[in-house]
Amino acid sequence: MVSPVSDSASGATIGSRESRRNEFLSSTGGLLALATASCLLWGSAFPCTKIGNVLFGIAPTSTSSQLLFAGVRFFIAGCMVVVAMSIMRGRPLLPKATDWKAIACLSLFQTVLQYGLFYPGLSRASGVASSIIEASASFIVILLAALAFRQERLDARKVAGCIVGFAGVLLVNLRSGGALRFSLAGEGLVFLSTIAAAMSSCLIREFSKRHDPVLLSGWQFVVGGIVLTAIGLATGGKLQPSRPAALVLLAYMGFISAAAYTMWSMLLSANPVSRVAVFGFMNPVFGVVLSALLLGEASAIDPLRATLALVLVSVGIVIVNRDPKARESARSDECA
């Protein structure tokens, strides 16, 4: 039997550990390191998805197979998070009865709706328009956090930072001769998937006040992955790996989601949404650069244009994060 003194000491140790973790996550260095790592991983997902479609024999218009591919990927990602964190914590990372409602809600927006809308839309949309629409998620997240969830205030500094960051995304995507178009069945679905992604960021921030963000991240992938896999199979989706490299790539793509979303969720649990969301402008920029390198399309990107885009995105991030009053206000709101 554990004595009350032991229980108290154990609680104090856990509380101290949590405090140190949150201090690191809310620091400029911690935010910069984890957010940049997340965006690099997500950026690599763009070319890896194209490579995966070839290795698994998925046609560009085969939405059912794309959803099946996504479902298996996210199920693997969820298992990675659950197993890794269970080992690290020395106990199974299992949800309590009170966690399942949050897991279901988060998986609906972050995995099922986001990717269930994104893949069909992407197959009918231009790559340039899709990248720009996806980048608008940072705007939408900040607007939802301020106007719908009342998690923070909207001010000119945040809007200015988003505009500068968005300009970087436009610069790297609007190549000479590129034309933008919009269709409800293509770009319209991509835009709806972006809204679902933005909702999930705000929900993570909200749910993290009462639930473990890492547990939510892992189990929402498990649930969302099962749902997408079921939809893909029910609609005739097939995966036909052509060689062992296909399975290695699938494992890496699972790791992308597991690591990136877990780090992102942890950052959202310890920071105002706007401080984290603005880093999302780095995703399409990294995606374009890594696509050029991994797909052998280096001639398709101008190094100067890519550099200027990264500078603009970085400036936008600095503008949003430069005001120390934002952190103090957020902390006082949480303590109130």
Features:
transmembrane helix; disordered C terminus; about 0% strand; Permease of the drug/metabolite transporter (DMT) superfamily; EamA_dom; transmembrane; about 325 residues; globular; single chain
Describe the structure.
Belongs to the EamA transporter family. InterPro entries: AA-Vitamin_Transporters, EamA_dom, EmrE-like. It is found in: Cell membrane. The chain crosses the membrane at residues 24-46, 66-88, 100-119, 125-147, 159-176, 182-204, 216-234, 246-264, 276-298, 304-321. This protein is mostly helical. It has a domain at 43-162 and 179-273. Helices cover 78% and strands 0% of the residues. It contains 14 helices and no strands. The chain has helices at 4-26, 28-55, 63-89, 100-122, 127-135, 137-148, 156-173, 184-207, 213-234, 244-270, 273-277, 282-294, 303-321, 324-335. The two termini are 37 Å apart.
- Helix and strand content put the structural class at mainly alpha
N-to-C series of helices and strands: HHHHHHHHHHHHHH
Q: Calculate Rg over CA atoms.
A: 20 Å
Share of helix, binned = over 70%
pLDDT average, as an integer?
84
**Low confidence ranges:** 330-336
Measured by DSSP, the beta-strand proportion falls in under 5%
Mass-distribution shape: globular
> What is the total tally of β strands?
0
Distance between the termini: 37 Å
